[in-house]
Fold this protein.
Amino acid sequence: MEKYSFAKILYHALRGHKRWQPAWRSPEPKKSYDVVVIGGGGHGLATAYFLAKKHGVTNVAVLERGWIGGGNSGRNTQVTRSNYFYPESAAFFEHSLKLYESMSRDLNINVMFSQRGVLNLAHSDHDMEMLSRWTNAIQLNGIDSEILTPQQIKEMEPVIDINARFPVAGGFIQRRGGISRHDAVNWGYARAADALGVDIIQNCTVTGFNISNGMVTGVRTSLGDISAGKVHITVAGHTSVLAKMAGFGLPLTSMALQAMVSEPIKPALNLVTVSGAIHMYASQSDRGEIILGAGADVYNSYAQRGSYDNIESCVAAFLTLYPGFSRLKLMRQWAGVVDISPDTSPIMGRTPVQNLYINCGWGTGGYKAIPASGDTMAYTIVNDRPHTLISPFSLERFESGALVDESAAAGVAH
């Protein structure tokens, strides 16, 4: 793998940028692999990377029906945080946040991780009481969190209107939270996994599974059958479709989660600002675009687009806090197909089919989970038992009723 550095950029610049190595190979699929990972998004690529890096399993194929990062991994708002209420979620996402903090060095690619802080707003005394409870829980989980007054918020984010239609009563911040470049995360894991020997197969659609005596033995694809010792499904909103092909059902609902960006402007927003009450979150990219998002659409869909109603309500909510941006034009919008479980927490681990594993149910929080998901699922696949961090998120919890309901404290989706 060609090592990226300032000297390397200068070297290629002097040669017209015509001699760069491809970031990863485009091999033909082999007839057999030790592990086949279905899904070439961040979760699938991270799993393949950790299988090779930490466990020495390099005979791995990542199958992607489109192009790398063309799904939810490239269709999100890039927010990374670990300020979760429940200990199970907090432990997992704190592990993920720590991996984000070292990701650029680990993968030798600048993922542009900007720890500018994630601010959650309160708009009433009741909101403030709930956020105080949330903050205390986060601190008890050993994670940074700090209550702010309206005046402190105004000092940190001068362009916000704290006396708007929904006055700002206060809030809390996780200063280590922030945003990163989602494309760079995908490319970084793809490049690093490829360098370790993983085959990344794009434009390869999985059409079924080969199962014998309750054990998966391979996958059927548009490029032919591929034998596999173990198979891992991590395809976000289409997980239930593939699970049905394998003969079992999942308690998932798929719908569009959309986001949008404005035309670029000079730096104006300092933080990632979230308001559950008015249902909006916003940040500014390094390119100057204002990134807006809210919640998922209210109807089931596999389409990577959203409704105009959601666009209108998101923009209206944003302008109640930032009326000074009312003349900005939206430049583009997009959506990802998210899979939402009954307790809004992921489903990770083994399935009723032996040697077949799943990683799904992330709903609106999949991007921030990418590195920890890859790390813990690689362990689970190699050892055929769940990693400690993901044991609460097994499929069996829906039989026992031991649900981890994060929706009560999650606020707005981001």
